[in-house]
Amino acid sequence: MKLVTAVIKPFKLDDVKNALESFGVHGITVTEASGYGRQRGHTEVYRGAEYTVDLVPKVRIEVLVGDDDSEDVIEVIVKSAQTGRIGDGKVWSVPVETVVRVRTGDRGADAL
Amino acid sequence: MTPSSGDTAWVLTSAALVLLMTPGLALFYGGMVRAKSVLNMMMMSFGALGLISVLWVLYGYTLAFGNDVGGGLLGNLDFAGLSGLLAADPLGGVEGEAAGIPPMAFVGFQAVFAIITVALISGAIADRARFGSWLVFAGVWATLVYFPVAHWVFAFDGYTAEVGGWIANDLKALDFAGGTAVHINAGAAGLALALVLGKRVGFGKEPIRPHNLTLVMIGAGLLWFGWFGFNAGSALGAGNTASVAWINTLVATAAASLAWTATEKVRDGHATSLGAASGVVAGLVAITPACSAVNPVGAILVGIVAGALCALAVGLKYRFGYDDSLDVVGVHLVGGVVGTVLIGILGTSNAPAGVDGLLYGGGVDQLWRQAVAAAAVGVFSFVMAFVIGTVIQKTIGFRVDEETEVTGVDLATHAESAYELGSVSGTGYRPSVTATTRERVEA
């Protein structure tokens, strides 16, 4: 099994969610995040004092998938989150040792 | 004698309008600080509401409006505890014919001026003041500075007592609603306290951004609304003077808001909401002394000058390195000086309480009187506030320690946090908070 994590632009969340649903992913976890990559931040001006805001709001999506699906899921996220402009984010996956469904106690692929 | 019911109704209504300015100021200031210190910011205004009201009734009114003790400097103690005012004769109507208002209406109207003047100062020491020390400062400063200065500026001979203050009667500087007594007074005291308390941690290095600009705009709106009572109410009667002051208060404020945002657009590239709200307050400050001394076109000029000049003046603190956190100096001191001095230039005898200024053939006679009044109040307030603040800092301490300041003065000083906000899901669940009850209830 793999944990696929994506950090994307907040306004692309709906597109990514819909694309993952169409692909057949049954559950995702979404958190609000902030950070910066090559995009860096932006500037704000209050009463003439200019501030550089380093951290930009982002959305972090986590999906647990079977080993065979992970490349496809990554592809789905990249396609649906892409605008082609700087700051689109990153997607990565890591191996997962165990998954348990809390309600039933199912383990492994059955728990996905 | 029976007082004029119309005048009395207007002055009592105006007093209530001016009272609302202080909660409005609490919103205006509160939105500009960070979320961790908004309660402390608002409490400094609410603390002034409590303390100054009580002091005003006990001895503030009599020090300001009792008969002069000599030199136009201070009132005597005839009205201590408002004695003798429960059923006194009406105070003379400013507009001539009418029988005027009961002294108690005047007491109330002037009380709310004292409150807001003290509250204005708190903007200079945002995020870092101990609440108890602030209250001590508020009481001592009101006693030693505001009550005497209100006597100088607002106590006219023969109104509440036979002899009044030196600025109103001897210098004859025009200050209709408090450009000197309220705004220069509070601005100079704010500068002194900003110097005494020192810069906030991270000032000029880290971003210290306003946490809620919608509060700032609501606050500015309430200030503008209440200010109609402040300025038009200062006519102390419901007639032409009040009406002219009302229109000037509308149009100068509007012009100042435009001028501030235009200045920003040219300098920074964007017209900001904080700029629009700040321009409103700068315009209100500047038209305060001048609202019955200029015509409406003059009021627009007062607003434009104040809006543009204050927008530039708020940057001075970074250049000179004093942390006047919410720009009490840049808005109230500068705006107050602009309005007070411009009377000497734009004043016209066609206005209800005006004298011809430089542009209307009056020469520099009124101009120097205005400048002397502005300088006298500013210097007196600055020196006194600096001394009072320093004594408090050296004895009981005025500023919170650094750890408290960084974690947030709200939690340390008031044991509260302003906002309980949930995350994405909106549940408001905070794992670090567990419920305990202080008292056990027996069933």
Overall helicity of chain A: 10-25%
- Could you say what the CATH topology of chain B is called? Ammonium transporter fold
Structural class of chain B: mainly alpha
Going by helix content, strand content and strand pairing, the class of chain A is alpha+beta
Give the oligomer, counting copies of the same chain as homo and different chains as hetero.
heterodimer
Tertiary shape of chain A: elongated
Number of helices of chain A: 2
Strand order of the largest sheet of chain A: 2-5-1-6
For the largest interface, the chains and their residue counts are: A-B, 13 and 21 residues
**Main sheet record of chain B:** none
Query: How much strand of chain A?
Result: 35-45%
Please explain how this structure is put together.
The complex is a heterodimer of chains A (112) and B (443). Chain A has 112 residues and is of the alpha+beta class. Chain A has a single domain, classed as Alpha-Beta Plaits. Chain A is built from two helices and six strands. In chain A, the strands form two sheets. In chain A, strands 2-5-1-6 form a four-stranded antiparallel beta sheet, with helices on one face. A two-stranded antiparallel ribbon of chain A has the order 3-4. In chain A, strand 3 (42-46) and strand 4 (49-53) form a beta hairpin. Chain A is elongated, with a radius of gyration of 17 Å. The termini of chain A are close together. With 443 residues, chain B is mainly α. Chain B has one domain (5-402): Orthogonal Bundle (Ammonium transporter fold). Chain B has helices spanning 5-32, 38-65, 103-121, 131-154, 166-171, 179-197, 213-232, 240-268, 273-290, 296-313, 316-320, 328-346, 365-395, 402-407, 409-414. The model of chain B is unreliable at 423-432 (pLDDT under 50).
